[in-house]
Amino acid sequence: MRGEVADSREGKTANQELFFAMLLPSRPPSIARPGTLVLLAPTAATVAETFRDVDVDAARHARVLAGLQRLRGQAYLRDGAITREQLTADGCHVQSADDASWHVVSVQPDGTVVACARFRLHDPAAAPESLGVWSSALARCATWSGPLRQAVESDMSLARLRGVAYAEVGGWAVAEEWRRTTQAATTALSTYALAEALGGCIGITTATVRHCSSRILRKLGGRSLQWGTAMLPSYFDPQHGCEMEILRFDSSAPGRRYDMHVARLARSLRDLPVVCAAEGLRAPAPSAPRASRLPSFASLSERHVPCFSTAEFAPI
Fold first, then answer.
1. What distance in Å separates the CA atoms of residue 14 and residue 152, rounded to the nearest whole number?
2. Distances from the Cα of 177 to the Cαs of 60, 114, 181, in angstroms?
3. Distance from C-alpha of 150 to C-alpha of 183, rounded to nearest angstrom
4. What pTM was estimated for this model as a whole?
5. Which residue of 70, 79, 229, 304 has the fewest CB atoms within a 10 Å radius of its CB?
6. What is the pLDDT of residue 287?
C-alpha cells in the first residue's frame, strides 16, 4: 500500500512539474533560442488587411505544413495518442482539417517546427455534425450526445448574436525539448490574438487530460461546456486511449492572468509572416469596434513592464 501511495504521489508530482514548467518556464541556455511565429493560412483563404506581411509561396506553405504535421506525429506517437499506422511514410500526422485551417507555428532559424496549434473557422450556422468534435466519444454517447449538441448550438447562437465566427482549435503540439520554454504557452495564447485579428470568435476544443493539457488550457481561458446548469463531463476516448475534455473559449476573454501576454501578442500580430499557398483576395480589416481591440491591447501593454519578453509568467 505504501508503495502504491508513493507511486501515486510521484505521478502526481511529475504532472505538476510538467504543468508548472510549461507555464512558469525555465530558460536553459541550450534551448533558450527564440523561435519565429508564423501564421499559415488555409489553402484557400481571404487574408484580412490586418496582416502586413503576406507571402504567397506554395512551396514554403507545403514545407511548413509538413513540418508541423511531422511534429504532431512525433509528439502524439510518443504520448500514445496515435499508432504508427496513423502516420504517413515520412512520419506526418495528416488530418482533413489541416488544409482548411489557420496554423500558428513556431519555427526555428533552420526551419524546424517546434510548436503548433490549429485554428479552423466555421460558419456559425453550420450543423454540429460538421464539426470535428462530433467524432468524439462524447458525441457518440447516448446519454451525452444531446446535451453536447445543445451546448454547441447555444454557443453558435451566441456567435451569431455577437456577429463573430465559431471556431475549433486543435492540433496543439510542442517538441519535447521545448516544453520548458515559453513556446508552448505562446503558441496557445497566440490563437486568442489570431481570433481577434480575424474578427473574434467563440470556440471549442477537445483536450487531453494527459500531461495536464486540459488543465493548462483552462488556465489560459478554456471552460467546460455547459448544458443548463450542468457541466459536460470528461470522458475516456478509446481512439486516443486517454481521458479527454471538451472546452469552450471566448477570444475576447483569455485567462485573467494572461491578458497582458495576449495584449503583447496582439500588438505584434499584424507584422507576423502570413504564408499562403495561393494568391487570394485581401479583405478589409474587421470593422470597429472589434478591430479597435488590437490598438487598445497595444496601448494597454505599453503601461506594463513587458515581462513576456523575459519568459516569466504570472504565478499560478
1. 34
2. 25, 9, 9
3. 35
4. 0.77
5. 229
6. 55
